[in-house]
Amino acid sequence: MAEVNEKVQNHAEEDFATLLEEYDAGKSRDEVVTGKVIALKDGEVFIDVGRKSEGILDAAEVSDEQGNPQVNVGDDIKVAIIGSRGGRPVVSYKKA
Predict the structure, then answer these.
(1) How sure is the predictor about 93, in pLDDT bands with cuts at 50, 70 and 90?
(2) CB-based burial of residue 76 (10 Å sphere; 0-12 exposed, 13-18 middle, 19+ buried)?
(3) Domain range 31-92, its CATH number among 2.40.128.20, 3.20.20.70, 3.40.50.300, 2.40.50.140
């Protein structure tokens, strides 16, 4: 019986890994999503875009002429996922 349980558990783990890979592959570049502003730091805005890590947005995209950010922590904004850097999605407000 223990052998059967082990086979079932191993098969379930393989299926989950396959499903997770397919899910991540289905999220394509230039996908427009609504994200929540998590933090503003060092010229970057960190956005929760529903991925494994936060998206990175260049603060200049959401700043006025004086360089003041026009978003606050907690705001929901639409962004386009345009690539990745260091395992984090890179997002653009202007392309959304």
Answers:
(1) very high
(2) exposed
(3) 2.40.50.140
